[in-house]
Amino acid sequence: MNIKNDSHEHDHSHGGDCSHVHEHCHMDGHNHTHDQDNALGHEKGKDEKTLKILLKHWIEHNKSHEDSFSAWISKAKGMGKMETSQYIEKAVKFMEQADEMLQKAEEHM
Questions:
Q1: φ/ψ of residue 3, rounded to 5
Q2: Which domain holds residue 7?
Q3: What is the per-residue pLDDT across 94-104, written as a single tens digit (0 to 9) for each?
Q4: H or E segment at 13?
């Protein structure tokens, strides 16, 4: 096995121009680049952060719709549209279940 000490720059995209030197060993059979590793790690971290934000947003967004739907249930009943109000009520229940699933997903982040 050949081992070679190597010193080279890595560029990292963090929203600014940031490059620095790393020293490390390369061994034969080394079949990936550190740029790929760093890009995958940064991508995963970025995706996790985005997903956390989205989960919170989706829950809040659904709740705002549920409030609006609830108001229209009363209005539909007032118009004599009982079947319509019942379907809206069912939709609210499904949204509440979706919220529970999204909250569980958020807990597992």
A1: -120, 130
A2: 3-107
A3: 999 999 999 99
A4: strand 3-13
CA angle 60, 62, 68 (to 5 degrees): 110
Cα(98)–Cα(59) distance, integer angstroms: 8
Which residues, in sequence order, are CB contacts of 91 under 8 Å at separation 6+? 69
User: How many domains, in total, are found in the chain?
Assistant: 1
Q: What distance in Å separates the CA atoms of residue 66 and residue 44, rounded to the nearest whole number?
A: 33
Report the C-alpha gap between 104 and 109 in whole angstroms: 9
Q: Which residues contact 22 (CB under 8 A, 6 or more apart)?
A: 7, 8, 9, 10, 34
pLDDT digits (tens, 9 = 90+) for 24-64: 444 455 555 555 556 667 788 899 999 999 999 999 999 99
Q: What angle do CA 73, 77, 96 make, to 5 degrees?
A: 20
SS3 27: strand
- 104, two tokens: 């569980």
Identify each DSSP E strand in 28-105 by its residue range. none
- How many CB atoms are closer than 10 A to CB 22? 10
